[in-house]
Amino acid sequence: MDHLKMAVAKIDAHHPNVLLVEKSVSRYAQEYLLAKNISLVLNIKRPLLERIARCSGAQIVPSIDNLSAPKLGYCDSFHVEKFLEDLGTAGQGGKKLTKTLMFFEGLLKGASGDELKKVKHIVHYGVFAAYHLALETSFLADEGASLPELPLRSPIKVALPDNLSSIDRSISMIPGYSAPSFEKPQAQKTAQQFITK
């Protein structure tokens, strides 16, 4: 009993309003927490506990012994509501089933509305560019296009193989596939010839 009182005193020293626990808690400890006006939620699955901790900014403490300086989470409000199921399912004796849901409100916070609009605008154009890059790459691969042989003009030296095959220059989405070239050798021009003319 003294150990439980000390454990509850350690918890109460951080002044939490709600305590979420993965498994169960001793009945005596529950009564001590109730006397300190600390709400207790039992049997929360670990993935859900981690998700709530991530959204609220809390630190999951595996034991009371590790409670020296925990990072407490924050939310604007916490409440519990019961709902009756209206799906026509009835429990034993024809009673309607009820579900109890917990609500943590005000968990996610961000910058001002103007900054979020700018971020949304940037993300919108990033997705647009990525989508069209995929479309253009697919189109060029369907047309049998390959990358030109341009000399590298970079101060960084890269060891390249002496003999590049057409497979190495292919932009095909299928690994190892290169579209056959049907042009006559004298009609082929490199990208360097087009640039110098």
3D structure, described in words:
The chain has helices spanning 2-12, 27-35, 46-56, 113-142, 166-169, 191-196; strands at 18-20, 39-41, 77-84, 98-105. The chain has 197 residues and is α+β, with helices and mostly antiparallel strands. It has three domains: 1-74, GroEL (3-Layer(bba) Sandwich); 75-108, no CATH class; 110-149 and 167-174, no CATH class. The longest helix is centred in the middle third of the chain and has 30 residues, at 113-142. It is elongated, with a radius of gyration of 32 Å. The N and C termini lie far apart (92 Å). 5% of the residues are buried.
Descriptive terms for the model:
197 residues, GroEL, two-stranded antiparallel ribbon, alpha+beta, two-stranded parallel sheet, 3 domains
The CATH superfamily label of the largest domain reads: GroEL
Biggest β-sheet description: 2 strands, parallel
Please compute the radius of gyration using only Cα atoms: 32 Å
Rough outline:
elongated
β-sheet strand percentage: 5-15%
Distance between the termini: 92 Å
What is the tally of beta strands? 4
Number of domain modules = 3
CATH class of the largest domain: Alpha Beta
CATH architecture heading of the largest domain: 3-Layer(bba) Sandwich
Structural class: alpha+beta
Question: What's the order of the H and E elements?
Answer: HEHEHEEHHH
CATH domain fold name of the largest domain: GroEL
Strand order of the largest sheet: 1-2
Low-confidence stretches: 182-197
Number of helices: 6
Average predicted local confidence, pLDDT: 76
The residue fraction in helices comes out at 25-40%
